[in-house]
């Protein structure tokens, strides 16, 4: 028994001695333990060509004692894969307890090319994809780029686009990346419908939104392209339009879009719940701030008792009140409007609650995305700076100003928490857009004839927010060159400083016997007093000179002793009384210089005077509440101007003008327009007014009359020898009422409207030279002899009136207007022109 136990014990000891090294060897072969790789430096790297060994080792982070454990190895493996530099990464054990990291590097992109793209240029696509030449090829990034290209085409209205990326192998582990693009056809909006609208017609609502239906002129624009982002923006435009006009409960429930294979386009339907229209019943002000009386802010309210509820005016009221409270030292005051509806009476009682808001300061303002526009151009649109109290109204105003600059495709201001609970960070995210314009414009009008203009302009010159424009005009009767420059922030104040330099030439035509040449410059300053009220101060210095064909001024150049016959006063008197002084039956009826005509005395006198300088100070006050400056349907526009000439120069006068237009929507999409205007010219000092200083009126006052066809007119030698020059007047008034209506039977996108109107007005009180010693035409005498050839003119204060119809076309070739008006009352010598046409375009 003892012998057996000794044998078993010996066998057990031998087995243990033998199994221990074998198990250790097997463990070392099967599991690369943390202790196996001593340090990061002991890692071997295989397969790398471009990436340095030390760069690969740097992704393995050693733990305490400088050794790598299994967790550190796993983290290093993941980090290498996430770099996107490698197609494959493996970790293998090696003899001596080391790790071997085997990598297969991603190829390098040799070039990125686009094939099949015709509608979108390579440059635009290159700027959008993330895969770049000399960069590492990443297949997930390639797929993302393909999707991005497809998205760009979809925003351009091509929804059946297909993008196939191709990878072409090249030597030295390089590849060419080619995106093969099948653009497909343009996918437009075939119809736009509105459901639930009762107060406003579908025809009117199509004016509100940006999306347009496709038609035969769609190739000139892009608003008919289906764009889901634009459709969503249109929903908000419709809602805001209803809220502006009293519909406090309006909801644009949905914007449904459906692709129609038969029409090969989208059908868009807006579902609207209008609700009731409300008026303002009362306005109250409640302040929880003891030292601030809310009623003192009532002057900054844009809403009034009895008016239609207007959400836009309400927003502006809140903004103005909150800014005013901040100016008074209540930096954290918050104005919150509350509306209590009376559903039976359809009224809203508005209460402005003024409370002390949270004490939050602006820690930082981050501006991002401005690749061209300087930072200060963006920051100066803020009335608050870093360190100031946070004021939401001022932030909203800054966002609106940035959008109005028209420098950016998108503007978005968001907030994020700052370094402490009372700090906030403003993030201003921008996307730049092109701000330069080169245009060739052409047009024709019955006044100026054919006209062409070439211009180049930049709204954001050098990225500094400056405006610059140069233009050259050449036409049948008008020619000129002009340069304009505007600095919108003079000396960092919200004052726009501008300068215009110009040369203009107006040639003689069917309506005036003389031409004019004008060269000058005009600096100006503009102030925005409110969003709807602006003031401009200006100074003008220009030289003016008359040009006249020789035959209309040849009497001044005759020598009475020459062989050329100069009619005597008695001879001219007989002619004007219908007597042929020659007795030769019309032969020599108007001999000498009068036979080929003669221009009016004031014209010839201006010609003799030569170039004269006009130096004038002036200002304009503009009030504008139009809903749309290009195609207004509602609102008021008032422009008041005054110019005082006589600050140096050869001329002195005071000229005052006012022009007011009021638009209001009537029934069935008909818009009413009331237009009134008036002006007065006063002599200042001893300088006599010139004919050129007087107002000249025609269809700009009463349609149905020729340019310069209304008012005082020279009758000397009339109608035998002279052209009947319009002398102009120092006083005028005009009034017009017009109805503009769409052609309901035509598609909205055609842009045609009709108009019917009635005009009335008058121009009178010529003040200017009536005699001229240089030609002996003084006080009704010629060379001391009584004669009818001394200047006489018609100056009757007659009311001119007309009625007419017009055709207004917002065409792709520019705004065009055709008018046919018939005068009802007129002066004896007024010149009628029943048809008038004008328009032009840029291309």
Q: What can you see in these coordinates?
A:
With 843 residues, this protein is an alpha+beta fold. The protein folds into 6 domains: 30-105, Ubiquitin-like (UB roll) (Roll), CATH 3.10.20.310; 108-182, membrane protein fhac (Ubiquitin-like (UB roll), Roll), CATH 3.10.20; 188-273, Ubiquitin-like (UB roll) (Roll), CATH 3.10.20.310; 279-356, Ubiquitin-like (UB roll) (Roll), CATH 3.10.20; 361-432, membrane protein fhac (Ubiquitin-like (UB roll), Roll); 614-842, Beta Barrel (Porin). The protein is built from 12 helices and 36 strands. A 16-stranded antiparallel barrel has the order 16-17-18-19-20-21-22-23-24-25-26-28-29-34-35-36.
Assigned CATH superfamily of the largest domain? membrane protein fhac: a member of the omp85/tpsb transporter family
Mean pLDDT: 82
Question: Strand fraction band?
Answer: 35-45%
Shape: elongated
Question: How much helix is in the residues?
Answer: 10-25%
Query: In the CATH hierarchy, what is the class of the largest domain?
Result: Mainly Beta
Major β-sheet annotation: 16 strands, antiparallel, barrel
